[in-house]
Amino acid sequence: MHIFPLGMYCFFQRIRKRQAMVFIYLISTLFSWGKNQVIEGEVLSSILQANENIDLNATVVFRTRSTQSISGYRQSLMALLAAYEKRNTKLVTPKNYPKIVIKLDTIAAPGLQVSRNLIDGLLEILLTRGFSTDQVDFIAMKPENLKLSGYCHDLAGSLSYRGHVIRTPLDLEFFDSAWFHDSAMPPKEYDRAKFFLSYPLDRNKRLEEERKSYLPKIFFGDQIYWINLAVAMDDANLGVDGAAINMSLGTVSNFRRFRDDPTLGSAAATEILAIPKIWNKRLFSLIDLSRYQFAGGPLFDAEFLDSSPILLLGENPLAVDRVAGSYITHSRKLHGMKKRNLENALIFQYAEELGLEAVSSPTIVDIPYFK
After folding, report:
1. What dihedral angle (degrees, nearest 10) is formed by the CA atoms of 79, 81, 82, 87?
2. CB–CB of 337/94 below 8 Å?
3. What's the pTM value of the predicted model, to 2 decimals?
4. Mind listing the pLDDT tens digit for each residue in 272-304?
């Protein structure tokens, strides 16, 4: 059995009280488009030059502009990938990464979702690099939203997008009893009701199952790597609902169990990401800020949507979220809303405690946009 216990990091025994430290970062490059021209001084920014040597110990997020057409996304993604590959000295090719699984964020769809044009642009790049359709799969947790969003026209039978398999919890082998995250957190009432209906005469089985959060089986296969396509949403409990949540709580069988608790939810999210078979096989996370939600999360609310023609790409999903959070914070300020103190967000603090790099102050590398 492969069990990932929450207690192994002792979050519930040693949540330390720490004084919040306020950092002011300089923005050396200002964007000259949209109403998000000036982002609050929360992140350090630098310009990528041809001969620039980025600190290999820094947590880097690459940023560029993009138009929302397929060709625009493809062009911007190629620039981001070139910078990412230069830093990692490894090309995204079938030789290096035999199988890629793309995690789609569909929780807030159809109102807030990954753009189909962005997906098409990414697929075109992967196909030109030699990947076949059966070497790139998708994962989506809410299959009904795939139809509402236009990804699929019919949910009957096997799901696919442009010839690529879409794996969902509707698949009989999507979860595996051997792969789960174990949490001492008490289950929600609806989870208890579900387990009672499933095991009405077996109390021990109910108690055993209510602690488990099953994870997609495919993540633990050999020679499988993942790309994380997420949207950004303000979340009062977790700080930012973006790339990190998409690849952690957004993959488990009972994600609603953790969403309402800022302490336990943040702990579960970072522990799932820290599982070696997940963390060590990440390629990159990507957030498209052409449409993001700055209030009202984690449910979709069209009243609080904003837009910036920005793509963020980074190897560390938490660092990408930290940068996306500065855009959310800026939009909240423009609309006269209470500031979210991301410096105090537990998810970033726990990530650093677990050794998932310095995500509270990532270095932004701006990639020139070429029309």
Report:
1. 130
2. no
3. 0.81
4. 999 999 999 999 999 999 999 999 888 889 999
